[in-house]
Write a structure and sequence with these properties.
Helix content is 52%, strand content 10%. With 271 residues, it is an alpha/beta fold. It folds into 2 domains: 150 residues, Rossmann fold; 110 residues. Strand 2, helix 4 and strand 3 form a beta-alpha-beta unit. Helix 1 packs parallel to helix 2, helix 2 packs antiparallel against helix 3 and helix 10 runs antiparallel to helix 11. Bound molecules: zinc ion. The site of zinc ion (ZN) has 9 residues, from helix 3. Zinc ion (ZN) binds next to helix 3.
Length: 271
Amino acid sequence: MSIEALLAAAKTDRPNHAYLLLGPLDEARALAKRLAMTLECEAAAEERPCGACAACLRVGNETHPDVHLLLPERDALKLEQVRDWRRDTRYYHYQGRWQVFLLERAGTMTEQSANSMLKLLEEPPAGTVFVLYDETADRLLPTVLSRCQIYRLVGETVPEADLEGAAALLNELPELQRADLLLRTAELDKDRLRRLLLGMQLLCRDLTAAAWAPELPGLSTIPLPGLPPRAALALLPEIEQGLELLQRNIINRLLCDTLLLRFRRIVTAQD
Ligand SMILES: [Zn+2]
């Protein structure tokens, strides 16, 4: 999903009730602000966010009365903070189109605050939009994740060793026998599988970009695997789905095998 696709719904009168943005904190924060601007902007729908109207400017300098930002205090988002927020959601908004609640480093929610948050996400008050953001989804409850539209910023860094592992797997994928694949997945814990998928995602994006949009700078720091660009493109939604399963903590050994076998089928079908 592109940033444009993410913002598209926010321009309309039917945005999602909850978003989760994942990536480097600075970028995620900037995107959350842009999302809030898009929601509050007073310009015509297709021009949102215009960046120039009173609403955009107020979101920009953090003075918009309907955009609420919740920051962790001493490394935790505490129950009282979420409670105060829940009280806020009951008041009718001041001037904006939506009441927007931004939750920075959402993963620092204590168990109590996450449960309180969950109640809000399960029955979102009319006219409210929640935007959670953090570097990873590792510390978020699966029940919270399942309520959010998840957007991952590409900037999430992948260590070079994992990129190399991902490139090797992509290169070998068409030739690997089922038994070899099963052996491979036996070595993967959740964390390694995630880094492997992120590496594959980055390489497939670069491969696709190199073929169809060569003016875009590549992100990977290693030589690209010899996969046909068409196969790389076909793999991207599958990789995305794998990452989503991982985030919701519903991936296990069997799913992992199925995932890699599907990857292989897609790659060989595109040869
Ligand atoms: Zn505007």
